[in-house]
Design goal:
heterodimer, A: 13-stranded parallel β-sheet, 35 helices, 50% helix, B: 98 residues, three-stranded mixed β-sheet, globular
């Protein structure tokens, strides 16, 4: 196949881009594997002409077939045994109209047919040739096509179906494979020009349709039931998005061009009922990719075509299959709301409240079109609408339906970040910390910042600690007390007047805080009367008794952070609940390995006013735990950190969304079992979210985009680190909805292009920090071309390491 | 410099520093004082008193204002701070929000 392809590719060098796309499609079709799925798959791939480059296709064509092949094979695998064998059957009778753009003289149809029947390979090149030729002709027809077809999918479909190049059109509908099949089936004895037109039209249509189909499939994954999209294939919802996303990405420019031609063609064709498109889509989704697919495609064509073209015996089979498929998808048809004409119909669709396709692979499908599913539909249609619109406008808008051009006059943009006097002073002080004799009168914030600076540069020592502790401080914050010994600690605290301390932070205090050292800090019961926030992370030598002593000396405790205290067990939590149960607002027990989640559940339930719970890394956290906990305390909950609790599934998120309407921050790092359903639940339930941290989750592009559309308006901090499928849809939704975003992490999202980044950064005017670690696909086009003067882009080569750690203001104690 | 373009900053000891308004606006606190609606004495007289800030510190602050304007216009130099002043300067800077 490869060889075949290469043969074909060079011949198309003279073609226009459009043709090339077709060609590539052809090529892909030509090189289908034995299973129809593969064939189908390839078209979809190939119909997505070369990726963003949009440049010379031939070069890009090559890689595509391979990709599509993969997809195809994947699809075929999933296709549940769509047998390739089925393919040849119907094909035999159909002349293989050069679906592909054939350049040069097009061999007569008849020849092609035979060529096809002889073997795929044989026919393919012909097909391709023909297709190419047709494309050329089609190009000339573009002008004649009205805009009608361009506008609505329906009309396009219609026309496509009815065009004389029915074969071709059909073929396209089915994404290459179909197309090819169809062309075969239908007798393309019409004039060469006609066929050519059709062919090109088909190509266009096919790619166009496949696009649409893809989208549609995305949309209606559940509806379809048989999700197999040729090409996109039987990818399950999970994989499908990526496939679709990729396809879309690639097809952006290419498809746009193809579409234009195609659309033009179509407009000339007689109108085809919308159902045509639907059917096509349905067809595509048919399980048995191969034969049924083809059959359906053909049957569909036949049934809808105004002029039945060359019915062959296979058409009967096709019709039968088609009927089956139609029966299956009847309900979908019934609910389908064709989109209005015009570009991005998001608004229209939202209002229409179309029977929003439930999210794919939704274990408990929404029984009402909630905001998430509506958003999903919008997003799915967005692509197709754009593609429809594209035919009218320029290519470059499509896919990467991201219209963003870097600014030229960049030098006026660069607003220098003038270091503030406070910063300068702090730096000097940090450099000369040992010379400071007293911190009297210095307010808490500079103290904290100074302490931070010193800890970061490892210059923190007892001298400064004494300064911090001296007098009657209200806050003692040491981010890193690993240098502190027990003696130093006890000595410093002896001189400390603890009456006013409200915040005590001795993080990483394992060395200095064993049980017996607690007495040196809390000399008597209630010796911290005002203490409301305490953080002693890393106190690895502290046991339950020590903690109990500490807690008893702080009767007004509202927030406690005992993360990484490995000796603490469930009884600590019980003590907490006993002593400060109704006061406690924040509880952080990250990585406390000895605390069993289910054992602490009863104690947790007694913390009536708990607003923040962080149980990162505790492996015993399960769905049951979350569901039960949230059911009791969900109303007050503002922040929930569940990172690394890998046993959690969508069920927990569903409950959280239902019971925690006031949730402001959610951390779902590394929860790989979550699917798009989880995002859907969140979108519908937690609409006040301001901070969402995702990392290594397997959400799809559309899922995230739909979430943003539905609930992304209040987001201030968003992390999509390593959510690899994130791509243009998310970018568009971000730019549109998340205007309050201040911090965005898109590290390792390699599907985001320069344009996507540019659009986001320019639209989110509040954005201060953008993390792009691992995004080596970013070029200077974005870096120098974006017009947001305040954003700090960290993670690329030029930024100093660790600078991102200092960008945003550190958290204040008692966040909510 | 015309009177309308200047602001007078008065230290604890009574020293008066007459500086450009643009320079004074570098400080958020002063900017708010001078531009907020309502008739503050500061706005009317065009002078601001700082009873907690000593003269040396206020002088250094004014120097910072001008340095900051210079930095913004492209000339990036280093602003040297004497270590003895730093602590008080930091507190003043914190107060002035600069």
């Amino acid at each position: 196949m490869r060889a075949l392809r290469s043969r074909v590719i060079p011949s198309s060098s003279a073609e226009t881009p459009i043709k090339k796309s077709e060609q590539s499609t052809e090529i892909d079709t030509a090189a289908p594997a034995s299973d129809g799925a593969e064939v189908v798959g390839t078209p979809s791939q190939s119909s997505v002409p070369a990726p963003d480059s949009g440049g010379p296709r031939s070069a890009s064509v090559m890689p595509q077939p391979r990709r599509s092949l993969r997809l195809a094979s994947a699809a075929s695998r999933r296709g549940g045994g769509a047998s390739a064998e089925g393919l040849p059957l119907p094909l035999k009778s159909c002349p293989w109209k050069g679906v592909g753009s054939g350049e040069g003289a097009s061999p007569c149809e008849g020849e092609k047919v035979e060529a096809f029947t002889l073997g795929r390979r044989g026919g393919m090149s012909d097909r391709q040739n023909i297709g190419k030729r047709k494309l050329e002709d089609d190009a000339s027809l573009i002008d004649s096509k009205g805009s009608k077809s361009l506008r609505s999918r329906k009309s396009v479909t219609k026309r496509a179906a009815h065009s004389d190049a029915e074969n071709l059109v059909n073929a396209f509908d089915l994404e290459e494979n179909q197309w090819i099949m169809l062309s075969k089936i239908t007798d393309l004895d019409g004039g060469d020009t006609e066929n050519r037109e059709k062919g090109s039209c088909n190509d266009e249509v096919g790619s166009f349709r496949s696009r649409k189909i893809l989208r549609r499939e995305d949309k209606g994954k559940d509806k379809i039931g048989d999700n197999e999209v040729i090409g996109l294939g039987a990818e399950s919802s999970g994989s499908k998005p990526s496939g679709i996303g990729e396809q879309r990405k690639y097809g952006a420019e290419e498809i746009g061009k193809a579409k234009i031609v195609c659309d033009n063609m179509l407009s000339d064709c007689s109108s085809v009922i919308n159902l045509d498109m639907e059917i096509n889509n349905l067809l595509q989704k048919s399980e048995s990719i191969g034969q049924e697919f083809l059959n359906v495609a053909v049957a569909q064509r036949k049934s809808h075509r105004v002029k039945a073209v060359g019915e062959s015996s296979s058409s009967d089979i096709i019709r039968r299959n088609f009927r089956n498929i139609a029966r299956r998808s009847a309900s979908r048809f019934a609910h389908f709301n064709p989109d209005d004409e015009g570009g991005n119909n998001s608004q229209v669709e939202a209002e229409r409240n179309a029977s929003a396709a439930p999210r794919p692979a939704d274990p408990e499908p929404e029984d009402w079109p909630g905001p998430f599913s509506t958003a999903m539909k919008i997003i799915r249609d967005r692509g197709t609408n754009v593609s429809t619109l594209q035919s009218n406008s320029f290519f470059n808008k499509w896919k990467s339906p991201i219209i963003w051009a870097p600014r030229r006059d960049r030098h006026t943009q660069a607003k220098r970040l003038i270091p503030s006097l406070l910063e300068l002073c702090l730096n000097v002080l940090a450099a000369n910390a040992n010379a400071i004799t007293s911190l009297d009168g210095v307010p808490d914030m500079p103290r904290h910042k100074l302490s931070q600076l010193l800890c970061d540069s490892r210059k923190m020592n007892k001298h400064f600690f004494d300064l911090l502790v001296g007098g009657s401080p209200t806050e003692i914050r040491v981010k890193d007390s690993s240098w502190l010994t027990e003696e130093e600690l006890s000595e410093s605290f002896k001189r400390c007047d603890t009456r006013n301390i409200m915040v005590l932070q001795l993080d990483q205090c394992g060395r200095c805080l064993p049980d017996y050292a607690i007495s040196s800090i809390s000399c008597s019961a209630s010796c911290f009367p005002a203490l409301s926030t305490i953080s002693i992370t890393g106190a690895c030598r502290l046991t339950d008794d020590g903690l109990a002593t500490l807690i008893s000396s702080a009767p007004s405790l509202r927030s406690i952070n005992i993360s990484q205290c490995s000796l603490l067990t469930a009884s600590s939590i019980v003590t907490l609940a006993n002593k400060v149960g109704s006061l406690l607002r924040e509880l952080y027990i990250d990585d406390c390995q000895s605390i069993d989640a289910m054992l602490i559940l009863p104690a947790l339930k007694r913390l009536e006013n708990l607003q923040v719970l962080s149980v990162a890394g505790i492996s015993s956290v399960s769905d049951d735990f979350v569901v039960e906990f949230v059911a009791q305390l969900g109303l007050n909950l503002r922040e929930l950190v569940l990172s690394d609790c890998t046993n959690l599934t969508d069920a927990s998120i569903k409950t959280i969304a239902e019971v925690c309407p006031g949730l402001l921050a959610l951390n779902l790092v590394n929860l790989t079992k979550l699917t798009d359903s989880a995002v859907g639940y969140l979108a519908n339930g937690c609409q006040a979210l301001e901070k969402l941290i995702l990392c290594r989750n397997t959400f799809s592009d559309e899922g995230i985009a739909a979430f943003l559309e539905a609930s992304g308006e209040l987001l201030q901090e968003l992390s999509l680190n390593n959510v690899k499928k994130v791509s243009t849809d998310t970018a568009i939704s971000l730019a549109k909805k998340s205007r309050k975003l201040q911090s965005l992490d898109l590290s390792w999202c390699r599907n985001m292009t320069d344009e996507a980044f540019g659009l986001i950064v320019d639209s989110c005017s509040c954005l201060k920090e953008l993390k792009v670690f691992g995004c080596t696909q970013i070029t200077d086009t974005f870096l120098n071309g974006h017009s947001n003067a305040e954003v700090k882009i960290v993670g690329l080569k030029m930024a100093p390491l660790l600078e991102h750690c200092r960008v945003l203001i550190p958290d204040n104690p008692l966040k909510y | 410099m015309r009177k309308e373009d200047t602001v007078k900053l008065i230290s604890a000891e009574g020293f008066e520093f007459v500086i450009d308004k643009r320079a004074a606006m570098v400080s958020q606190t002063i900017r708010n004082m001078l531009t907020s609606p309502g008739s503050f004495a500061e706005t009317q007289l065009g002078e601001v008193r700082f009873p907690e800030i000593s003269t040396t510190i206020l002088e250094k602050i004014c120097q910072y204002f001008y340095w900051s304007l210079q930095y913004a216009s492209g000339k990036e130099t280093e602003f040297h701070i004497e270590p003895e002043l730093t602590l008080e300067l930091m507190m003043a800077a914190n107060y002035l929000h600069t």
